Amino acid sequence: MDFELTDEQQLIREAVREFAQTEVAPIAAELDRDHRFPYELVPRMAELNIMGMPYPEKFGGAGADNLSYVIAAEELARACATTSVILLAHASLATFPVYKFGTDAQQERYLHDMASGRRLGAFALTEPGAGTDAGAGTTTATLKGDQYVLNGSKIFITNAPFAEIYIVLAKTDPAQGTRGMSAFIVEKDTPGFSVGEAEHKLGIRGSSTPPLYFADCHIPQDALLGGEGDGFKIAMQTLDGGRIGIAAQAVGIAQAALDASVAYAKERVQFGKPIATLQAIQWMIADMATQLDAARLLTYRAAWCEDNGRPYGTEGAMAKLFASETATRVCDRAIQIHGGYGYTESYPVERNYRDAKITELYEGTSEVQRMVIARSYLR
Amino acid sequence: MRIVVAYKWTCDPEEATVRADGTVDWSRAKPGLSTYDPVAMELARRLAEETGAELIGATVGAKGVGAPIASKAALGRGLDRVVIVEDESLREAGRSELAAVVAEAIRHIGDVDLVITGDSSVDVAAKMVPTVLAGELGWPAVAEVTAVTGQDGTLRVERAIPGGVQVLEISGPAVLAASADAAVPRVPGMKELLAAAKKPVELLDLTALKVPPGSAVMTVTGRARPERKARKGQLINTADPAAAAAELVAALRAAGAL
Amino acid sequence: MSVNAWMVVADQPTVGNLVTVARSLGGPVGAVVAGPRSVAETIAGSGVDKVVWCHAPDDAPPEASAQAVADVVAADPPRVVLAGRNPGERVLLGAAAARLKAAVLTGARSVSLDGDSTTVVNAVFGDISDETVAVSGPVALLLDGGSVPPPVGSSAPIEEVTVSPLGLKVIETITHGFEKVDLNAAHRVIGVGRGVKAQEDLAMVEELAQAVGAEIACSRPVAEGLNWMGKDRYIGSSGAHIAPQLYLAVGISGQLQHMVGVTGAETIVGINTDANAALFTQTDYGLVGDLYQLVPAITAALK
Q: How high is the ipTM of this complex?
């Protein structure tokens, strides 16, 4: 079994790290403090072909493998969790459905722009009454002549209103439950489609996650992605891949917290010695490092499965579950190591701590991940 | 126009350790492009974008410099192709020997209008290989270059001097050593890195190059850890900055340093 | 007269150390100068036996005389050819070394002639190890040039050679306003590293420098990346090597690439927040703490 990254994966890690450390890290605290969406980073990441990394070059992507993409997400998250999720929501959640399920015409119209990063995407599944119970959505899409009419609302939609292209899940047949759900490609500025006030969150504060409102929003019939009734399947497949990216985000956040803790422990002198000489601190670092490494390996393994044509649903769920819970645990210990200073804005670990929590919640809560894993064992 | 960027694939001495007998242990060090070589590549790239020049990388050294990852790292930074002389006999080569091999590689490439190198390598930091190379080729050389524009035939070069910058005009082929802060190298894009594997890599045989031998033979007859002035290693408690300052000043006065 | 050692000089006469080393080898010492005639005259009076002045057009930089310098040295091949650590001299030395097919060493701590062999103790890899090298054949050495050599009495003859310059000419010179400094002449030096967070904070360090009577120098990132001071203030493996009475390292991590420039200092003091910084293995007095508190405190203690 070969645990080495390929040459390309190593070089990609170095290049993304260089970008993340020189252009993203210096603004991470400001993005968090000001709840600012770093719109200037999107064209920069597009320029570096990061926005559509795993998609084929003929579609405008970089033609990289999923493991490289996941490494890029990790390096970005290490500098700034917000920037990482902007990429992940765009590439894994919005671009994937168009790539996997789009007709030639839909791909012609949208895929190149999305994979190249020229136009930003968003994915709209979650509703006020439909989170973990994703099938309980009440947003409807009714066919009238040669148009669908959307009515309803979505919440917590990452990248809105900066995104131009939205993958919207809506019920074409409410009586059928999950089998009545369909997916649509909706462009920004379509009449009847509006975006609400930004949500103020505990973490990833620069990530914009407002609600969407559909009031008699007419979209062309050919905005339907896949067939009527395919929506739930499309959403679940999309999330299967998406959660590997979130696992990588969690790994990156935890790595930042661990790095900060190691540096602090060597610098902070109490009782005449650096606290790094104290066994209590040493054992915390050992546990943090071990769990982080395990989370990284699970994440890379899931990406490897996806790249090598193996099933990756359970593997992705395991990675996301473990990495997210590891991130919150590592960030908690990081603040502990920093003591009182860790609780202040002078040190980055309080931001890491606040950022980490979302990874246990979105793209399927830890409870959903456990359901997925259990099902694969107890079926 | 044809531009050659001479680069080095090597380890950073910060990652090496010195044994008690003075020999250097490189086993923990991971090789990479020498720290300031990407600056040279950036300057070369800008000139190539301006002139449509062909950009060729050249490197020489012991086993390892021809590893695929080394070539990809260089090619991923805008080079069109690379030419490599990889020979274990070069492991202990001195500056002039390496320069002579690079000169032969450049003659082999042919029709070269400009050679750009980094300021110095991260491990040896001699700053001499580019100038000896120029001597071997009989070409003008300029070091501490901060910018280069123009066409083959006439180049306009800016170089740092104490107190400022001097602008030179160079006619004919030349060797330019880029100042370490001449430019911030652009971050390689993902497509560039993935395309690197498909770009041509030419491996030259050292013996076939018939590099004329040097006139000097160097033999290492001894190694030692440098004798360092023994330092007191005294730590002054800084809990009270004023007290620490007073203690330091008193100690320095007593030692005759103030 | 067959020259034993050639000094290669560009447009600055700061070659006192080269004169000392060349003379210590015994035998006649020659100097070939590619710069203004005044430099040739200063060196002619410094105790060398022969000076060749390469007379190039006014708009030719020293580098344009590189092949002419190589011609001079090759016409009277020496055991050793030496030059100072400046960009112009490096180019001239490179041309001479290539012509002689000489071995090139750039970290010589000592050099002596032993019969047919030249023995050099050479610091390698950023000064982490010393190699003793025996060389048969010509050796080219890059050394710290030193200061302007004082006159020692009679002047050596100056032979003038007209140079057909390589295709290289100066179009323009632009000054940027960083005050020049001779760190070698300073008895006390304060080095500034990246622990100093903002350029405005240099004012605090300057106050200390005034109180101590010190010059200010810096690590490489401060001179180059941040461009807070002229590059002639950068101390390190490819920068200045100094041996002052007192070196005070402020906010410097102590990486070997910097510290190699001050190993000769009499007393080294370091201030850094990181107790594990490499700096503290190389100091006589170490203060683990915040420079923003300690620097003003030391300034105050001196007043």
A: 0.93
